[in-house]
Amino acid sequence: MLTDKFGRHINYLRLAVLDRCNLRCTYCMPENGLPWIRQNDLMTDEEMVRICSVFTSLGVDKIRITGGEPFVRKNCMGLMEKISHLDGLKDLSLTTNGILTAPYIPKLKEIGIQSVNLSLDTLDEERFFRITRRRSFDKVMKTLDRLLAHGIKVKINTVVMEHQNTEDIIPLVELTRELPVDVRFIEEMPFNGTHDAETVLKWDHPRIYSFIRSYFLDLVKTDAPKSSTSYHYKIPGFAGGIGIIAAFTRSFCGDCNRIRITPSGLLRTCLYSGDGINLKDEIRAGKTDEELKNTIINSIHHKPKDGWEAERQTLTPAQVHQSMATIGG
């Protein structure tokens, strides 16, 4: 099993298959998009499957497909099916904005996708347009309905933003009254693809929690896996659950079990890191699987203690505000 110098076991890989997205969310990228990765610099399907295979041989048993938006990538479904057959893989999951997802849901179920994280920052169609700069709210809700109809576990990811969607917090909590979904409220991070000089967090974990509890006094904290990024809560009698992810304040780093691969093949041992080894380049240079394993093991050994250390050591001020689409989900 992969272990870093702090004794943390790494068994979770987040694979970003593409940096492009069909939304332009205000907290992720500028309205006009980004300088996208050139086609030749993206990993091929074969390179992605090979990298995943090397990781599963090293004890990684959970892989999440992310983006950008995964379904913007041509033949993303075929790629996921290939990954689903890897020896040692126990959990293949997906993060999506839901716009292109609905037609693929039966196939997702067939290849064993048990959990989907669905990005949804509001239940109001006009606020959805203001946040995403696209009119696709109905498509996302159709995806939510179809995922639940096919028995696929859904986690709704909601980035909480001052003056944009705080009025949606309670309606989203109410969604869990009847639906077996987990709604996870996420602290806003500085990854918006601009060069803002300062990011001030108005809605942190304690404030989100206090706001929800002011409406639901019987809100109770529940147990969560040791490596979970989310604080878990439950309202008695509700079908679903609630989570709060301290993504900006980074209080979950001590038990981190995950690493990331960007669409261009960069191995990032921390969300807030600005450097890493490019495994795609290693493959194209003719490295064997054993050589790739040694590179990965060495990189994992130098995984930073937490996001603050990673940012301090590897990020320039401009990189602090890079887009989440370029980081890898």
Automatic annotation (TrEMBL):
The lineage of its organism: Bacteria, Pseudomonadati, Bacteroidota, Flavobacteriia, Flavobacteriales. GO terms for molecular function: 4 iron, 4 sulfur cluster binding; cyclic pyranopterin monophosphate synthase activity; GTP 3',8'-cyclase activity; GTP binding; metal ion binding. NCBIfam families: moaA (TIGR02666). PROSITE patterns: MOAA_NIFB_PQQE, RADICAL_SAM. SUPFAM superfamilies: Radical SAM enzymes. This is GTP 3',8-cyclase. Keywords: 4Fe-4S, GTP-binding, Iron, Iron-sulfur, Lyase, Metal-binding, Molybdenum cofactor biosynthesis, Nucleotide-binding, S-adenosyl-L-methionine. Residues 5-218 form the Radical SAM core domain. GO terms for biological process: Mo-molybdopterin cofactor biosynthetic process. Its cofactor is [4Fe-4S] cluster. It catalyses: GTP + AH2 + S-adenosyl-L-methionine = (8S)-3',8-cyclo-7,8-dihydroguanosine 5'-triphosphate + 5'-deoxyadenosine + L-methionine + A + H(+). PANTHER family: MOLYBDENUM COFACTOR BIOSYNTHESIS PROTEIN 1 (PTHR22960:SF0), MOLYBDOPTERIN COFACTOR SYNTHESIS PROTEIN A (PTHR22960). InterPro entries: Aldolase_TIM (IPR013785), Elp3/MiaA/NifB-like_rSAM (IPR006638), MoaA (IPR013483), MoaA-like (IPR040064), MoaA_NifB_PqqE_Fe-S-bd_CS (IPR000385), MoaA_twitch (IPR010505), MoCo_biosynth_MoaA/MoaC (IPR050105), rSAM (IPR007197). The keyword Nuclease does not apply. Its EC number is 4.1.99.22. Coiled coil: none annotated. The gene is moaA.
